[in-house]
Specification:
- Two copies of one chain form a homodimer.
- The first copy, chain A, is of the alpha+beta class and 132 residues long.
- Chain A has two domains: 72 residues, Winged helix-like DNA-binding domain superfamily/Winged helix DNA-binding domain (Arc Repressor Mutant, subunit A, Orthogonal Bundle), CATH 1.10.10.10; 59 residues, 2-Layer Sandwich (Dna Ligase, domain 1).
- Chain A contains five helices and five strands, in the order H-H-H-E-E-E-E-H-H-E.
- In chain A, the strands form two sheets. Chain A has a three-stranded mixed β-sheet. A two-stranded antiparallel sheet of chain A has the order 1-2.
- In chain A, helix 2 crosses helix 3.
- The radius of gyration of chain A is 17 Å and the shape is globular.
- The relative contact order of chain A is 0.14.
- The interface between A and B is large, with 48 and 48 residues.
- Chain A binds a DNA duplex (30 and 30 nucleotides) through helix 1 and helix 3.
Chain lengths: 132, 132
DNA sequence: AACAATAACGATAATTATTATCAAATTTAT
DNA sequence: ATAAATTTGATAATAATTATCGTTATTGTT
């Protein structure tokens, strides 16, 4: 049975309170400001547990370490190949009816004899960000 | 100036000759059968150089180590969250005119004030494969 | 063909990112 | 308050990848 912990609560609050997609280490520094002896191992453990449970989302861009997103409402992402930062694409999945329809169509058009079941569809754009 | 090398050539041939998306280590074992003292560091170096130059593609799924694809023609992927294997979605970008149109629309609908330029659009489905 | 310049290699060390271990502390149910 | 179970912090270990460096291979030039 899962038990409450101040550390996991603080991690969730921190992650949900920011619009960027921090790495484990970035979260670690932020959380040390709240709970001074918060351990890096605990950050990793909680990130792993929470993303396995689908409470948060792990983002793998291929440009730098893993990043995490507190918003699990389906939405696209954009990775800057220069700095590795990941940004939200708020337009996807919700703003446009067309996009919503489009995403649904993607799942339907998935053609691979190897697929048994689909649980998620992710879209990642790559390019350069305005901050680089 | 880039020079030819038997090792890089063999890597490209191997990667292009298979439909799976091998990890660096998997390629290393295959390549040792062709060039017995092929070094793992060389595998990594060539994979890095070739993907930086856009000759091959690095696939980051978040389930296991990085994988590589010798086919750079735009196409979607499917990751099995159980075994980490990555499969091609051949339907995307080419088979359906609708899908092609859809993907183009995705680029156009990309709404983030942080985007300076977009170089690539990737779609990754997650789920379980029939082999698991 | 020999030569010089330079890029790539193999072997291995180092680094980075992440996971595992375990005794102590915290949480939860009784 | 006590006991059982989970989580933690500190740290060790592992996995994946990158860097180093002396040697080898490739390429352009005599």
């Amino acid at each position: 049975m899962r038990k409450y912990s101040r550390q996991r609560e603080a991690l969730l609050t921190e992650l949900r309170g920011r619009k960027d997609h921090p790495t484990a280490e970035e979260l670690y520094f932020s959380l040390r400001a709240v709970i001074p002896n918060y351990s890096l191992g605990t950050v990793y453990r909680n990130l792993s547990d929470l993303s396995t449970d689908g409470i948060i989302m792990k983002i793998s861009s291929g440009y730098g370490p893993e990043r995490y997103d507190g918003n699990i409402k389906p939405h696209g992402h954009f990775t800057c190949t220069k700095c590795g930062r990941v940004y939200d694409l708020d337009g996807f999945y919700d703003s446009h009816v067309d996009t919503k329809e489009m995403i649904r169509e993607i799942g339907n058009s998935a053609s691979s004899k190897d697929i048994a079941s689909i649980s998620e569809i992710r879209i990642m754009l790559y390019g350069n960000c305005v901050n680089c």
